[in-house]
């Protein structure tokens, strides 16, 4: 009697019993193993291990938000869950993440990320027609596992702390058509000759890149600009910074240290060399203070 098929079935069954319990949790003997228990402790979040990619992902559904998109009530699994994923990268650990934020949470959460050694890599919307407006901030970092986990934990703690409308909105009642600014003072503070039109002062700084083999610069939209309105004592400034990727973090830090809010980080082109990032900002305060903050950010760039 041939027993080989039965033996083969028995062997497969035994293998399934041995392998099955290991699925879904990390093999601690693996040379690139993460300490998932400690990551959960330091971040304050529960996570799930992906054995196929050796990634441990912690998440926090924004179940506190009541978001509708064009009348559709949105639940967290539909893209309203903040998360951070950890994976070993040689002797270091790499983390990336996506944070779901209301507008008044963007600045304090960005500060928490930057102050704790994380990079902010994008800030934009994922929806149209949503109420309330929801922004998405992408973060990243490379370094020691424990330090990254602590940093992520502080970011998520800030999200919790500012939830429910506890963030601050920089409001300033103003009719920009009645602006009256001292242009000479702004020229001196920014180190550039600006133009005034209808009381609005505007200055720009051109950069260069190559797009599809063609040089593009200031006139093609590769520029940093600032527009001031109001008075010398009560002003608003908005504008755009353009920069190669390596300049993004220093510019972010300089603007936030000056109290200027970052409202978007994204690209405007595809296939350009070098890759250029665009950052949009908004600030309110005394004109001299705002100009000083912009100048500090400009000084981090290789203009």
Protein architecture, described:
It is a single chain. The protein is of the alpha+beta class and 303 residues long. The protein has 2 domains: 140 residues, 2-Layer Sandwich (Alpha-Beta Plaits); 123 residues, no CATH class. Helix content is 27%, strand content 35%. The chain contains 7 helices and 18 strands. The strands form 4 sheets. It has a 6-stranded antiparallel beta sheet. A hairpin with a 2-residue loop joins strand 5 and strand 6. Helix 2 runs parallel beside helix 4 and helix 3 packs antiparallel against helix 4. It is globular and about 60 Å long. The N and C termini lie far apart (85 Å).
> What is the total tally of β strands?
18
Mean pLDDT, all residues? 91
CATH class of the largest domain: Alpha Beta
Question: According to CATH, what is the topology of the largest domain?
Answer: Alpha-Beta Plaits
> What portion of residues belong to β-strands?
25-35%
> Which of globular, elongated, flat, extended, rod-shaped describes the shape?
globular
What is the straight-line distance between the termini? 85 Å
């Amino acid at each position: 009697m041939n027993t080989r098929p039965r033996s083969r079935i028995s062997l497969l069954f035994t293998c399934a019993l041995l392998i099955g319990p290991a699925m879904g949790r990390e093999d601690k003997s693996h040379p690139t193993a993460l300490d998932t228990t400690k990551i959960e402790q330091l971040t304050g979040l529960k996570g799930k291990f992906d054995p196929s990619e050796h990634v441990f992902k912690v998440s926090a559904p924004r179940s506190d938000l009541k978001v509708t998109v064009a009348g559709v009530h949105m639940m967290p699994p539909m893209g309203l869950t903040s998360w951070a994923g950890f994976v070993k990268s040689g002797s270091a650990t790499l983390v990336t993440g996506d944070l779901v934020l209301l507008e008044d949470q963007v600045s304090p959460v960005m500060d928490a990320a930057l102050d704790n050694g994380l990079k902010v890599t994008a800030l934009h919307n994922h929806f149209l027609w949503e109420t309330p407006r929801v922004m998405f901030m992408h973060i990243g970092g490379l370094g020691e596992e424990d330090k990254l986990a602590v940093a992520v934990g502080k970011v998520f703690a800030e999200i919790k702390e500012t939830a429910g409308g506890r963030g601050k909105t920089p409001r300033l009642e103003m009719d920009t058509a009645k602006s009256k600014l001292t242009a000479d003072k702004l020229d001196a503070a920014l180190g550039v000759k600006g133009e005034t039109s209808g009381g609005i002062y505007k200055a720009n700084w051109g950069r260069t890149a190559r797009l599809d083999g063609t040089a593009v610069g200031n006139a093609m939209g590769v520029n940093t600009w600032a527009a001031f309105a109001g008075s010398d004592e009560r002003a608003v400034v908005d504008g755009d910074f353009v920069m190669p990727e390596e300049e993004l973090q220093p510019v972010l830090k300089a603007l936030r240290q000056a109290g200027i809010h970052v409202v978007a980080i994204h690209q405007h082109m595809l296939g350009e060399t070098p890759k250029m990032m665009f950052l949009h900002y908004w600030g309110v305060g005394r004109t001299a203070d705002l100009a000083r903050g912009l100048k500090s950010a400009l000084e981090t760039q290789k203009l």
